[in-house]
Fold each of these.
Amino acid sequence: MTPISLNKIKPWYEGVLSIFYPQLCFACNRNLNHAEEFLCKKCIVHLPRTQFENQIDNPVAQMFWGRVSIAFASSLFYYRKGEVIQEIIHRLKYRRNLHAGLFLGRLAARMVKESNLFPFPDLIVPVPLHKRKMRMRGYNQSELLARGMSEVLGAPYDAEVALRQVYGESQTQKSRYERWENVDEAFICGEISTDIRNILLVDDVVTTGATIEACASALQKASDAKISVVTIGYAAR
């Protein structure tokens, strides 16, 4: 008897499973087909894309001018109150929706692949949480983003090369200077191989850039690699 290919069984199995346990779109609650994940194609199309990945002088890149040397920086979506992206990131950070992190990471990776401005990364580094916050939350949302990106790009990620040594207060209500003061010298980095020439630093949302600036500065003390930045959300002020 000819063995049955697992690749042939999988679509059939997933089809049967979806009858009894349908996967629903996070935004509109419609049934997802086997090619869709987390959001249906219609809802993805209506997400508030920034299109910054094709603009070398986009607002996110400009945040770091004169502050820290960044090869390129971009955000995937506008992060605005009451919109789907804000709710997805909120569920990821505060309600343990880990699938959301992997999904958003894969979306961000596709943006990086389609852009001519991002150097292809040798290493993906998530902005780390302090160990106290890690204990409270149980996971680092940026690490989930990095893992999703790694799956699509085929580049490794390292969630331990950068460490947050200073526990800071919530940044939500702070001004740009207060945010910078809150994270100045907050990060340290371990040894990075000299073979690593391009690092992609990943975070969920950028507002003033203070946290990313501090983490990028720590990476630059440990490595001569060029650093690029990608975030899911851009919270314009």
Amino acid sequence: MLPDHEQLILIARSCGFSHVGVVDLSGEAAARLAPAMAQYRRWYSAGYAGEMEYLSRHADLREDPARLMPRPPEALRAIVVGMNYLHEAAQQWQQNHSMARRIPQRAVISVYARGRDYHKVIRQRLLKLARALSKQWRHQEAQFRACVDSAPVLEVELARQCGLGWRGKHTLLLNREQGSMFFLGVLLTDLPIAPMDAVMDPPQAPDGHCGTCTACLQACPTQAFVGPYQLDARRCISYLTIELKGSIPTALRPLIGNRVYGCDDCQQVCPWNQYAQQAALSDFDVRHGLDRATLLELLQWTEAQFFERHQGSAILRIGYERWLRNLVVAAGNALSSADCPAEMKSALMTSLRLHRRSASDLVVEHIDWALAQGLQDRHPERDRHH
């Protein structure tokens, strides 16, 4: 006997997941992904993916997830799970985020990246879920494929189709009871579990649960949203600080402010995130004081310390060069801010000059820009008398 929905929910929660749903992707049912896939192709063709060329690969697998399985499955289900990652109460997080953005010498790191790498956490938990399902229902020959972000599946669309939420105007999944501060994972299986289908809205529901609210669109520092449900990644701070390997466009640098890895602004202002829940797992607890670190403190880390302290963290993937590049841009913005104390500006300029002696060409170019911001901030009348 296969698990009913209540049993599946209990098992998923025992594995640390806060949400679970099931979508039937067998045979003709897989065609339900076609509208979302067409939208995905239009988005990519418009150039909004920037340098993320990997998103164009394996489009056939996104459209037909059965091809991800080791053997052609007779039945295919997508078990879609969510995992909360906030390390503090929603209201406290929103207040702290707003405050940190207003302190130019602070380093703001996206909440999801302050703890352990979610790819590792969710993959391990998905495999645990697969073992539990296999063992409890004695389906030793059952096939499973754990997919976490990097695998070519349409996670948000699958989550929407099994009733875990709807796609918000900021393109992320929103849930009435838990906002958007959770990760998604997908466990593909040939176990014919009964689907947990939702009442289907269109992939983009202009009159859906977001209503007329445009808070996320207006809050974006770089105006990366070309419209509701449409993100131009080339302007998104998460893309600029994580995915972009080269030089950050000069015109966008001042807009980044003190954000050094990712950006949570569109989520922080979302009214639904007043219901966001704290993480159940300690994996997402803050490491190395990354929720309150200053730019100067992080600039003082050596390359060895970067790799040591970010071991097991999502931040590790950008490497030390891009980490420095991001810190340097934020330091330049602090140097041009009237809210940054003079002694901190002096210390930041000293640190930047020290880094310039051994930095790569990419980082040096950003350091020169940052130092120029500090020079522009100097008051000509005041300097004439010193």
Amino acid sequence: MTKAVVGAMQKSDAADGNNPNDEKIWPQVLAILIASLGAFTQGVCFAWTSPFIVKLVEDKVNYDISEQEASNLTIVQPLTVILTCMIFSKIPDIIGRKKTLLLLSIPHIIALTIAAFAKSIYVFYVSRMFVGLANSFLWTAMPMYIGEVASPKIRGALGTAITFGLNVGQFAVNIVGSYTDVFTTSFVFLPVPIIFVALFALMPDTPYYYLIKHQDEAAKKSLRFLTRKSNVEAELKKLKSDVERQMSEQGTWKDLFCIDSNRKALLAGFFLRISQMFSGNIVFVQYTQLIFKKAGGDVSPEVASIIYNVLSIVLHITVVLFIVKRFGRKPLYTWSSALCTIVLAVMAVYFYVDENMVEIDTSSLSWLPITAVVSYQVVSSFGVTVMSSMMLGELFSASIKSKAMSVSMLIMAFGTFSSNALFNLLNSNVGTYAPFLLFTICTLISTVLSLYMVPETKDKTLEEIQMYLKGKKKSLTAL
């Protein structure tokens, strides 16, 4: 991924010429890819349940854990986020986006260490609580960091870096976790947050943050690093003007809900998050092997989950290099949601027939579940699973961005908790088809609403997006 993206960006740089005052974008790519190491570890911790829910239940020698107790592991993390996200809302503005992301490594190390030595389900619950704390750090700061570091022409592609890091982490834990125990898996991934701290400490904070703190010289150094331009006075002056205008708004909680442009951004963010959570995406991540086990078929759950996660990574790279830069946010999201509806409907019908119509032999259709899941990954990869992460760092004014991120975290945690709880409830009491039927209905509704709820931010600077949300037109030079 790093070589592919940097290579593509360097070609773009070369096309622009070699003038020392031409903006280079590879430093922005480098900073954001290093930041995505934090998302990688979060992906490991988040998808840890995929290989280990089944193992914890089946291993009666080392653990005495029921299926229901193990399933509760998926809801402890979002519950923790719900309880903590508001506390984290001010941290990126107080200590900076960079330092907030560096703090991410602490709960990651604690969570992996606790899981390595845990025997009781309650100790595992404590480990999941620290995963929730890490999630609060990640989603409070990283969309802001990406949105404020990346130039408009590459912000769409780099906005998917969080999802890319999560996907690679999910893939890694499914491979390692499928063939090793909890202890070994934990210590395989423990060095990653340490490496992340060592590398990301060398990166600058965002120019936006420095200007908010009236540190003009630090902002200038950050711009020079990120653009590799010797003279950034014009960019600094313009960026300072944009930040001052945005910070002139009071930025209170009331402003978040009462100012029209903020409310539009908040509603768009709310829609993107809720529609993502109820598209089935989170359930696929956390229950990958369990879903394949229930579906049966010739491919083992372990192998099927690895195929699923490899596809996630390949599709993500494809989306970054060939799709996001060519099409707008709105059409991508609408088409993605519509196609997800079809795939989820197919899965709902398959599981209904398999569980309730015993007179029909479904053994000849054992290929269908994995085909449907692979198809879901294809059609969700260019819209449903990436757009919320990409756009959250773009939509909000500097004055209320940290508050908006915390509200977004609350919405995401609520959606994760609700979708996991509903999956457990419907799967246990109605049938596996029921949650997929629910997700089908939700994505159908999202497809229609996306036509009205998703603003177009492609190729706009952060200030241009604010003017667009305010219903104004402002011609600005790209940052």
Amino acid sequence: MNNTFNYKNNELFCEDVNLSAIANKIGTPTYVYSKIGMLESYREFENAFSPLNKMVCYSVKANSNISVIKLFSDAGAGIDCNSGGELFRALKSGVTSSKIIFTGVGKTDEEIKFALENKVMMLKVESFQELETINRIANEMQLVAPIAIRLNPDVDAKTHPYISTGLAENKFGIDINEGQKAFQLAASLSNLKVVGVDMHIGSQITSPLPYVDAIKKLFSFINELSKIGISIDHCDVGGGFGIDYDEEKNIDISIFAKELLPLLQQFSGKIIFEPGRFLTANSGVLLTKVLYTKSNNKKDFVIVDSAMNDLIRPTLYNAQHEIKHLKQSDKKKVTVDLVGPVCESSDFIRKNYSLPICSQNDLLAIMSVGAYGFVMSSNYNSRRRAAEVLVDGNNFKIIRNRESFEDLINGEII
């Protein structure tokens, strides 16, 4: 267990707040985040790469609550947005637009215009057609658009296929073998200013070796660009730095830094990172309550009030999250399926999981859900989305109210 969530007198705490107190006051399911935990992860990442001229941009897609965005922005981070909605959130959080990079493989005209109107630091371009589109829109707006071109280095990140983004078969970026053509086209378009080159090879990466391979390819490409008179100010090596879900701790980022710094220091411009999961995952839990237990001749089931609509990761990625009683239990451990109320057999939190015997109304914490938790939640089965809470020392506050039944039909028309 990390230092953010610990048992004290047999009660599970987040920082100095008893999680049972949050569950009893606000109800369940509820996402709880640690401010200290997130800031410590940010500083850990910053310090590991301190020798570099760099910019660490928090990847909003990991956790897009405006309080979380503001927390990282106030700490000095830039912000990586992947949609018009994420850009809107960042601006509403008070982020200076010049600290925002705008990514995405399928930007609409509306999103491109929104980004240019707000003078973001740069837009990441992922196709030849997008170069033409941004140039056209910038021309209509009578401005020059700052862009970076995202290349696909065809490197295997050794991660889940759904979150691999750097292979030639993935939809992301421009084939590195077509990269020179892309940069030459961009240089010929009068309403574009090329300021950077970009890559992102995947998510939940736990070895530095794929980064080493990709960075070597990228720097070789930059060197070839210089031979045809194209210089690059920014090199964005993406995010994807993973965590250890079993141990509820971050990977040792210093091991990554040891391998990557000698390479990255060869670049004379600014290096950009886009961590998300690394900064937030282990600083969040999902509080849930046991509704029922039941057994048949095949299985023992624990039915809780959190479901696949609250946390889709187990269903989508077969993600393995640790589960803890809020009141430390010395009861016998049994092997159970922890499942939710949604009417699908794919609605589970863990299968064949060893957990101290549960009783009705027991409170549990699903660990390491600060990233890709609430942001991927839905209203499937017309279930109301959970509340979100931020803990700071011995205080906590609601940063998103639990949805009401009225919220479910807001915007619908008979």
